[in-house]
Structure formats: structure tokens, C-alpha cells
Records
---
Amino acid sequence: TDIAFVLGTRPEIIKLAPVIQACERRGIEYVIVHTGQHYSDSLDSVFFDQLDLPDPDYDLAVGSGSHGEQTAEMLVGVERALEETAPEVVLVQGDTNSVLAGALAASKMDTELGHVEAGLRSFDREMPEETNRVLADHVADYHFPPTDRSKGYLLREGISAFRITVTGNTVVDAVERNLDIAREKSTVVADLDLDDSRFFLLTAHRAENVDDEERFRGLLEGAQRAGDAHDADVVYPMHPRSRSRVEEFGIDLPPRVRAVEPLEYLDFLQAAASADLILTDSGGVQEEACVLGVPCVTMRDNTERPETVDAGANRLSSCDPGRIERSVAAMLGASDWENPFGDGDAAERILEALPVEAPSTEVPQ
Ligand code: UD1
Ligand code: UDP
């Protein structure tokens, strides 16, 4: 096997799909090792279907658990899968516990590791994602930062320039490939009765926000005030983590905020592209908003995607209701910026930089 893709969550499936499809086009052999960190259909299998991905070769079915337990179980399972398949290179994407487990397993087995979306930094070590991405970068052999800025962070941490290829973000490849299909096929805007109204799209699932009752209530109140101020519905496809916190804290959603099930990728793209503004604490959604030309307010204290803020596409509001309302007022209507995340050929650049080649199809003389 040339490449083992280790993945486990919604954003990894979406952002590795372009690389997997590029392997198909080039005839590069690969296996998919799914950790099972995400397992609900709406966070997992629906993306394999919509993105035309083959079923995983391994499903480790690790599921939810404490960070230590979850990561440890994945490490055991990924090691076994790598022993059986002996890939030339392991590829991981992003900053989840699945990434950490894949990176550690590859490094312990002395298999080369490539990190897609390397070099992102929030400089907030309280986020589990920050630790995961720093550790993955420091055991990786091939680094694929999306921008020069993330390359700069890697260099500053002592990572050699010859290991680094700036590729752009594969999120652009995915948007370019799927946006027209979404426009054609998705009926989400009509289904949610949003045709004739102004609406904001809200996603919030990050542990430091939704596991903290005060912050969670604050961001919902901010969304409510912004919706009221601009006569906009706020549609909230709710991650299961957030859904269980709403129940646990006994939160009644404010009237402007309409919770719906997590959306399929094409529906999400179509809803995002059609929204007047996006409120989020997601990493990938900050990028997509920027790529789609939709203004974004990020309900966090920091971001590992500062390129979006510098471009004028995004503003940080924390979870303070007043700041959210003011940030929405400031961002609404903005749309004129340059996409800092590349031209949609990130997947091809990644494969070019790896020591893998398709078998020769030339007929011997
Ligand atoms: C994980 C990542 C986060 C990423 C997010 C993408 C880590 C530390 N966190 O967060 O960086 O932004 O994925 O969505 O890796 N649950 C389900 N069904 C599922 C998966 C989870 O119901 O298929 C529920 C369970 O109650 C679980 C909770 O969501 O306890 C949290 O799941 P977990 O995978 O630990 O973290 P995420 O919040 O999904
Ligand atoms: N997404 C989706 N349906 C939803 C919400 C998000 O398809 O209801 C997609 C979105 O297009 C983006 C990705 O999920 O590509 C972001 O994942 P998430 O916010 O879960 O994780 P993060 O990027 O914060 O790690």
C-alpha cells in the first residue's frame, strides 16, 4: 500500500476526500483506516455517500470516551492496521484525537507521516485541538500547511523547510468540486422555508463553548439579539455534543434560533452559500465562509485561522452577547475579500510531494 489515510471525524472525511479522489485518479494504492471517533450517520456515513468515497478498509469503532481512553484505543487499532497494510506513508488531516492517534502510531512504527493542514496555531493550549496539532506537526515528516503564515509557524518551531510544502487548504478543493452540485441538487433552503427571508447559519460545538453553560447560553443569546436586530432567522444544525448539553443544562432555545439536525455536506454548503452571515465556532466553517464570500462571526476568543480575519471575512466575538451583536452588525453585507486558502489544487500538490507513484501503465518494449 502506498498511503494509509487515518481519519475519524466529519471534517477529516470532508477535507481528505479530495486527496482520496486524487489517489483514485492517479492509480495510487491506499487504504482508509476509520477510527470511529464519529459514528452517528449524520456525522459519518452520510459524508462517505455524498463524497463518493469507498467504505473504510478498517473501522476501529472506538466511539466516544475520555480523551485518554479514546486516543489510547485508537492508537492500538491504528498500529494493528498499519502493521497489516505496511503503507509507505500515513496521512492525517487537522487536529482531532484521531489525528493524534494516527500520528503517534505512525511515528512509533517508524512509518513516514504526512500532516495535511499543518502549522495552524491558536496559541491556546487549553484547547485539546492545539495540543493535537502541535504534537502531530512535531512527529510528521511531510508538512502541508495551507498558507505561508502556517509555514512560518512551523519554521519558528524548528521544522526544516525541506519538509514543508504550502498547498492551500483542501477545503477549497472540496468547495470547488461540490458547490455547483449542491446548488443543483440541494433543496435545503426551500425545505427550511428560508427562500424569502434573511437568515444566519449557526454552528457551535466546540468543547470550550458548549460544555460551559455560561458560554453556551451567551452565544445563543448573542445569536438571538443579532437575529432580532436584523430580522433574521438563525438556523442551527446542531452537533450531537451540543444537543446533549442543551438537554443537560435545561436550555430553552431563544425564539430566533431554530435547531435542526446536522446537515449533509451538500445541504450544508448550499445553506452556507445562501446565508446572509455565518455564526460559528468551527474551524472548517470559518474557512468555508471565507471561500464562499459569506461574512463570518466566530464566537471564540482566538482563532487558528487568522487569515480569515486579516482578509476581512471574519471577526472574533467571544461568547459575549453584546460583542456578538456588534460583530454581526459590523460584518453584515461584507463580501469583498481574497480567499487566502489557495486555488483548489491542494490535493494534487500533496500527492506530488509524497514518495508515491502510480504503477507504470507503459507497455514494455
Ligand atoms: C471532535 C474534535 C473536534 C472537532 C469535531 C468535529 C477532538 C478532541 N475533538 O469533537 O476538534 O471539531 O470532532 O465535529 O478530537 N457524539 C455522537 N455521535 C458521534 C460522535 C459524537 O453523538 O458520532 C457525541 C457523544 O455524546 C460524544 C460527543 O458527541 O461524547 C463528543 O464527541 P467527540 O468525538 O469526543 O468530540 P467532538 O465534540 O465531536
Ligand atoms: N458540516 C456539515 N453539516 C453540518 C455542519 C458542518 O456538513 O451540519 C461540515 C462543514 O461543511 C465543514 C465541516 O462540517 O466542512 C466542519 O466540521 P466541524 O465544524 O464539525 O469541525 P471543525 O472544522 O470545527 O473541526
---
Amino acid sequence: RTVYVNGDYLPEGDAKISIFDRGFLMADGVYEVTSVLGGKLIDFEGHAVRLKRSLDELEMAEPCSKEELLEIHRKLVALNEIEEGLVYLQVTRGSDGDRDFVFPSADTKPTIVLFTQNKPGLADSPAAKKGAKIISIEDIRWGRRDIKTVQLLYPSMGKMMAKKAGADDAWMIEDGHVTEGTSNNAYFVKNGVIVTRPLSNDILHGITRKAVLRMAEEAQMKIEERLFTIEEAKEADEAFTTSASAFVMPVVEIDGVALGDGTPGPITKRLREIYLEESMNAAI
Ligand code: PLP
């Protein structure tokens, strides 16, 4: 696999990063994951805009222009012959060669790394046909979940809690309300109405969330952006999650309670189809 590190395209075994990099020492970095379908990038623009916002919020310099970023994405997809898969992008604050809580001087070069993951069958996924079983766990993350940082230890632990409980993923709960999944935004459907938590600093502003809500509105579906409890979700007709890497993923069980007949719901399935078709048509 060829990877990209600070301007160079290298075999993955030759890539090097300083041990003083603040991404490594302090999780001082941000990332994006862009899907590739039919060899093309899904919603590159959305990811580029969110990356800029994450960098701005952390007072981190942009490592390169949007045009260069697109070129790097495309070159890696071509070099690694990705038809279906992901491009992972990470920008960290770099380092001035020592460990210090104070940010290094503003002229310190950020570290930029990109690599691809080959995932044949990403769109036509068996997991999406079956639907996911989720458990609920407490949300103990920090207060700026709108910034897409590489600080992923708790979401990773949450995923492990789900696996140990025989489930696929976890939804997190704060002050009695569902925030989001470990790596996705959360929704339920009751009497034809799609319910999801409104945007704030409490959740990531999903690129897929934005696209799916727009498409749902265009398809005359009813949407309510409001706080909701896990009890409400358990009594729903359907539930699903959205993310750039799993698109619209049906949820068929919450804390051991089957939703509807325990199979992916009709609105969820329709949204997945609409999302995949429209985003593949718009892919670049
Ligand atoms: N929420 C969290 C915590 C995430 O990590 C992710 C994706 O990684 C999402 C939501 C979904 O965001 P997107 O649709 O931009 O992938």
C-alpha cells in the first residue's frame, strides 16, 4: 500500500513520524474518513469543509489547500487501485521536538497523513441487510464532540463493550438523552417521523447526517430534530445510524429489545438506497 506523509507518497513501511508529534503524545489532531465507491470520492466537499472547521476550532494551521487535498485523495485511490473503500486523512499539530502542554509556535508544520483501506462490498454490505444490534452506554466523552479529533479511546471502549455484550455497536446517553453512536449519528422512526438529536457541541456534525436529512426532506419524509431517550428509541418502529463509512445502517435491536419485526425497516432501507444512489451520482 502506498501512503502519503507530509508531501511524500511512500510504501507504508517507509513512512515515519516523530515520536514528539503531538498527535502521538496528546491526541492533538483531527481526521476525516471519506468513502470511495466506483473509484470515486463520496462527498469530498463536505469532508474538506468540516476538516477546515475542526482545524480552525483547534487553532491549527491548514496543511495544504483543498485542491491539493483532493489531488492527494485521488492519487492514493488510483495508486492503490481502490474501487470500494475508504481514504483516511489525519492532521496533527506536529511538534517542535519536545513534549510541552503549551502549543508549539504557530510556524510549526502540521503533520498530514493519508492512507487508503480497500473494502470490497462496502455498498452492498451483508451487515446492512441484517441490521445492527446496539446497546446503550453512558457518554463520558469531553464537551467538544463537534470537533473530529483523534481522541477515540472512549468510543473504542464503547465498541468493545458492545462486542462483549454480543452486540455490534453502542449508543451513548448523557443527561437521559441519546447523543450518538460510537462512530455514527443516531435516529429512530415512529409513525413515519424520523427523529434525531439536533446539532450542538454534544455530537459530531455528520457529513452523512446532513446529506441524509436533505434527501429525506426532498422525499417528503417527516423529520424532527429533538432530544430523545433510549426508551423512546426502544419503542420505535425502526432505527438507524449514519456515517461516511457505513452510510445508512439499520438498527434492529436496542438493549436486547427487537424493533418492529426485528428486521431493517422500510424507511431506513429506502433512505439507504436514496443515499447510495444520489451520492454515487455526485461522487468525484
Ligand atoms: N458521530 C461520531 C462520534 C463519529 O465518529 C462519526 C463518524 O466518524 C459520525 C458521527 C458520523 O459522521 P460522518 O457522517 O461525517 O461520517
